[in-house]
Specification:
There is one protein chain. Strand 1 and strand 2 form a beta hairpin. The protein has one domain (3-148). The relative contact order is 0.21. The strands form 2 sheets. Strands 4-8-9-7-6-5 form a 6-stranded mixed β-sheet, covered by helices on one side. Helices cover 20% and strands 37% of the residues. The termini are far apart. The longest helix has 12 residues, at 137-148. It has 3 helices and 9 strands; from the N terminus they run E-E-H-E-E-E-E-E-E-E-H-H. It is of the alpha+beta class.
Length: 149
């Protein structure tokens, strides 16, 4: 099971050997200055955004790897039935979100990260939605044309 750790000035998602194999990568390391917000999701599937890019996705069993969406990429290491620590990152980080199922107390893990990160956004206790493309008159026309065919 993956662990979320604070080591020196970094946030580290340390994967087990089988998660490394499933995700096709080693541990994830980002500077604590890149951490924007930390939340906990009780349902693992709520942490999934976008489409699978690299990794293993077995519905109801395991999601490990990189997911792509309009806002960038997320890294997930998720198992059903466990709470998920969701770490939103600033645009300078390689991922927009780190979502990790944890074995122990997810709230305590999230609080440990919050206390260690220097500039947490505490304006809301929930994750922010993905950005969407700007709507224009042309985008609505294209949608209407698609519906007619």
């Amino acid at each position: 099971m993956a662990r979320v750790l604070v080591q020196d000035d970094d946030l580290v998602v340390r994967l087990s050997w089988w998660e490394k194999a499933a995700a096709h990568r080693g541990s994830v390391r980002v500077p604590l200055t890149a951490v924007r917000r930390v939340t906990v999701e009780s349902d693992w599937w709520r942490a999934l955004r976008g489409e699978a890019l690299h990794g293993v996705w077995i519905p109801g069993v395991l999601s490990a790897g990189t997911r792509g969406h309009v806002g960038g990429q997320d890294f997930v290491a998720l198992r059903p039935g466990r709470p998920v620590v969701c770490v939103e990152l600033r645009p300078t980080a390689p991922f927009g979100l780190l979502a990790v199922s944890v074995r122990g107390d997810a709230q305590a893990t999230a609080e440990r990260v919050r206390c260690s990160a220097p500039d947490i956004d505490a304006s809301t206790a929930w994750r922010q939605p993905l950005p969407v493309a700007e709507e224009t008159a042309d985008s609505w026309r294209a949608l209407d044309m698609y519906r007619k065919h």
